[in-house]
Write a structure and sequence with these properties.
alpha/beta, 8 strands, 233 residues, binds cytidine-5'-monophosphate
């Protein structure tokens, strides 16, 4: 876990297998894990996951499952059978759903990490209020994260700011995967709250998810190595 490359997850937010392959060929084993999300999975399906797994890459399947417990458990079994290493579920699915996901993972692949998404970073206090969630977004994050950890989830997807609070409230015995990471001086794009790789780790993240700073770089391999350098420092 200490090796910088083990902490780096590259988000393959691209529309085709060809575009994904180009990034993976460049970055290769500088990243411990590649994230396949809705866009790529919807376009290319399980074969892209199988290809990454058979090339000895770890895959984080970020489809944010949110459904009744039986349906989520079945999807987790299918993902585990594909050989994915990490996947996401929505913590707001509740304890029963989360426990069903964890149990299905344990049965199919005990090494599978089930990560819970709490409040989407696109939601703020006002928007949460409008869908009936009173109070602060951060309190909702902490509530949902506690539910996820108590239900057996192996980790939480959280911003660097949330990571600090999660470590304070819930301890150190779970993974925190942090997106919205930008190397010092990089373009922040549409991310509102960003942290550098070193800041994210200092805040308590075990892993960082980096998309465009690597996938959009002229030289993705160089960009990935620079981030590894920042993590090592
Ligand atoms: O390109 P960029 O580094 O912003 O990509 C970040 C990745 O992390 C994207 O795949 C995005 O969907 C994901 N993500 C995020 N914020 C969250 C959860 C996931 O940016 N709260």
């Amino acid at each position: 876990m200490q090796e910088p490359r083990e902490r780096l997850i590259v988000a393959l937010d691209v529309p085709t297998t060809a575009a994904a392959n180009k990034i993976v060929a460049a970055v290769d084993h500088s990243a411990g894990t590649y994230k396949v999300g809705m866009q790529l999975f919807t376009a290319e399906g399980p074969p892209i996951v199988r290809a990454l797994v058979s090339a000895q890459h770890r895959v984080f399947l970020d489809l944010k499952y949110h459904d009744i417990p039986n349906t989520v458990a079945s999807a987790v079994r299918s993902a585990a059978a594909l050989g994915v290493h990490m996947l996401t579920v929505h913590a707001s699915g509740g304890g029963k759903m989360l426990r069903a996901a964890v149990e299905a993972g344990r049965e199919t692949n005990p090494a599978l990490k089930i990560l819970a998404v709490t409040v989407l970073t696109s939601m703020n206090d006002d928007e949460l209020n409008r869908i009936g969630v009173r109070g602060l977004a951060l309190d909702q994050v902490l509530r949902l994260a506690a539910t996820a950890i108590n239900s057996g989830c192996q980790g939480i997807v959280a911003s660097a700011h949330e990571a600090t609070e999660l470590r304070r409230e819930l301890g150190h015995d779970f993974l925190i995967v942090t997106p919205g990471v930008r190397p010092a001086g990089a373009d922040i794009g549409d991310q509102a709250r960003v942290a550098t790789p070193a800041e994210a780790i200092a805040a308590g993240a075990t892993h960082i998810v980096v998309g465009r700073p690597i996938t959009g770089a002229e030289d993705p391999a160089f960009a990935a190595r620079a981030i590894l350098g920042e993590l090592a420092a």
